[in-house]
Amino acid sequence: MTMTLRALLPLLALATLPAHADIYRCIDDDQYVTYSNVQSRHCKKLNLESQAAPAAAPAAAAAPARVAPRTPTPANFPRVDADAQRARDADRRHILDSELLAEQKNLQQAQKDLADLPLRGVGEAGAGRANERAQAVRERVALHERNIEALRKELAKLR
């Protein structure tokens, strides 16, 4: 083991050295740009200075967050009065509540369908089809659960 370690150490030291090659930017007759380490016709050598990566300055300490100046709303911009907005919010809440109830009902039905599935099919072919049906019902259950969660989040934003 020490023998292989001694053989690998010089190789590892060489691997950390930076590679150096001249880079050329070549533009062909059709105006396509290619970069190469081999100089050919219509190529210009690029002067690439080796630069260290810029040190990351702490963003929070360097400059406070700039707040965009508030621009006044134009006078001719359409406005909604408070009563109309409250009515819209109530309609939205009613729609979300009804969608939530429908999703909960669909979830209960999907869970019932999953519970009613036979545990095994008849024969190998029947078992495969039964597994596919069970997977489809499980996916329906998961879909309804995700929908219910999304509707609850939307309702929480309204309250």
Q: How is this fold's topology laid out?
A:
Blueprint: H1 2-15, E1 24-27, E2 33-36, E3 43-45, H2 59-62, H3 82-116, H4 123-158
Helix pairs in contact: 3-4
Keywords: Coiled coil, Signal
Coiled coil: 127-154
Organism: Rhodocyclus tenuis (Rhodospirillum tenue)
Question: Can you describe this structure?
Answer:
By secondary structure, the chain is mainly α. It has a domain at 84-158. The chain has helices at 2-15, 59-62, 82-116, 123-158; strands at 24-27, 33-36, 43-45. The protein has a 3-stranded antiparallel sheet with strand order 2-1-3, with no helix packed on it. α3 (82-116) runs antiparallel to α4. It is extended, with a radius of gyration of 34 Å. Residues 57-74 have a biased composition (Low complexity). Residues 127-154 form a coiled coil. This is DUF4124 domain-containing protein. Residues 11-63 form the DUF4124 domain.
Q: Key features?
A:
159 residues, DUF4124, 3-stranded antiparallel β-sheet, 7% strand, 4 helices, coiled coil, mainly alpha
What share of the residues does DSSP label as strand, in percent?
5-15%
Mean pLDDT: 81
Alpha-beta content class: mainly alpha
Q: Biggest β-sheet, characterized?
A: 3 strands, antiparallel
The proportion of residues forming helix, as a percent range, comes to 55-70%
Strand order of the largest sheet: 2-1-3
Enumerate how many helices there are, as a single number.
4
The tally of beta strands, per DSSP, is: 3
Radius of gyration: 34 Å
Low-confidence stretches: none
Distance between the termini: 68 Å
